[in-house]
Design goal:
The complex is a heterodimer of chains A (about 200) and B (about 140). Chain A is of the alpha+beta class and about 200 residues long. Chain A is about 40% helix and about 20% strand. In chain A, the strands form 3 sheets. In chain A, strands 1-10-9-4-5-6 form a 6-stranded mixed β-sheet. Chain A starts with a helix and ends with a helix. The relative contact order of chain A is 0.21. The model of chain A has no long low-confidence stretch (mean pLDDT about 90). The N terminus of chain B is likely disordered. Chain B is mainly beta and about 140 residues long. The longest helix of chain B is centred in the N-terminal third of the chain and has 15 residues. In chain B, strands 1, 2, 5, 6, 8 and 9 form a 6-stranded antiparallel β-sheet that branches. A 3-stranded antiparallel β-sheet of chain B has the order 4-10-11, with no helix packed on it. In chain B, β10 and β11 form a beta hairpin. In chain B, about 10% of the residues lie in helices and about 55% in strands. Classes of the chains: A alpha+beta (about 200), B mainly beta (about 140). At the A-B interface, α2, α3 and β8 of A face β5, β6 and β9 of B. β8 of chain A pairs antiparallel with β6 of chain B.
């Protein structure tokens, strides 16, 4: 093989390698760290609750933006604030990275007996601006949670001294108002910063 | 021997013979009272330097109306929190109270405060007293 043919062979080999590399990258989307994306997004069930300002919240309230829904209660000292801190920190990091749109953080109270709209407002505001705190009657709450596979149950206690067991998952709702993906515990800032933009891009 | 070496030797000797406190707290973190509920959580490591098990059965704080011993757990995707009767620290062992596990729940602050004091009791015996600043808001 002469020098000219040798150079042509090298160039062809490089071009072939680059083609294979690009084709592989285009065909294999980046893997998600922890989120489970539903094969088909599921519409939210019918329900009527209220936010911290007393506005009625239904499934339509989740249209036109991405929402991260967590089910918890304000008298929870450990897991609930820790989860909301993770979501708030992840949202801040996404904002700093220029991510748009940003998901809204939504706390749905599983303890409507103690969690009034006023209390929900003070609580969710602690974790940043623009968060939504939802509460309402047990019956309406059950309509939402049972339709999403979310469990909660008040535990025995004395007076206002009681705990509420609840699912620890965070649900991602897409701008069509559909349940789109699920993040299971343990929740980490890194997983949300990595997965949320990828899921949004693929929508 | 030079004078400063004598001083150093005396200090080392003093340290080596000094008795360690029976219960030592490290890595103490107290979250700020949450707006609306006034609830805080405290996390720390407790090391038992004695040859007997220490059981912390009660914790008090002058800044809070009540302190409860709690344990959070995650079972099949469900978060649960339960009151526990005691924190048992075997001889020579360290018990770590951390997020998602055993912790102290501090209920209803008596007023504004920058420092929180915690007193740990084994039945009626005070076994540890510590002070800490509230955690800086993380976001």
């Amino acid at each position: 093989m002469g020098p000219k043919n040798f150079i042509v062979a090298i160039v062809l080999a490089i071009a072939l390698s680059a083609g294979i590399f690009l084709a592989t990258r285009l065909q294999t989307p980046a893997a998600l760290n922890s989120a489970f994306v539903l094969p088909a997004p599921a519409p939210l069930p019918g329900f009527s609750l209220v936010d911290q300002a007393g506005n009625t919240i239904t499934g339509d309230s989740f249209r036109d933006h991405w929402d991260l829904l967590f089910f918890g209660f304000t008298h929870c000292p450990d897991i609930c604030p820790a989860t909301l801190q993770v979501l708030a920190a992840a949202r801040s990091q996404l904002a700093a990275a220029g991510q748009a749109p940003l998901p809204r953080i939504v706390l749905v109270s599983v303890d409507p007996e103690r969690d009034t709209p006023e209390l929900m407002g003070k609580y969710v505001d602690y974790f940043g601006d623009g968060n939504l705190g939802i509460t309402g009657s047990i019956d309406e709450l059950k309509k939402l949670t049972s339709g999403l596979g979310i469990y909660f149950e008040k535990q025995p206690g004395q007076g206002e001294d009681y705990a509420v067991d609840h699912s620890a998952a965070v649900l991602l709702i897409n701008p069509d108002g559909d349940f789109h993906a699920l993040f299971s515990s343990p929740h980490t800032i890194e997983n949300y910063v990595h997965d949320v933009p990828l899921i949004m891009e693929r929508q | 021997m030079r004078p400063y070496l004598v001083v150093a030797a005396i200090l080392i000797g003093a340290c080596s013979t000094e008795r360690q406190p029976p219960l030592v707290a490290t890595d103490l973190v107290v979250t700020r009272p949450m707006p609306g509920t006034g609830i805080s959580a405290a996390y720390l490591s407790l090391t038992n330097n004695t040859e007997k098990t220490i059981s912390v059965t009660r914790v008090t704080s002058v800044q809070f109306r009540s302190v409860q011993l709690h344990e959070s757990m995650l079972e099949n995707g469900v978060a649960r929190m339960r009151a526990i009767p005691e924190l048992e620290i075997p001889p020579g062992q360290t018990l770590t109270l951390q997020r998602g596990g055993k912790h102290l729940m501090l209920i209803r602050p008596k007023g504004p405060a920058d420092i929180v004091s915690l007193q740990f009791f084994d039945e009626d015996s005070l076994v540890l007293s510590v002070d800490a600043a509230f955690e800086t808001k993380a976001h």
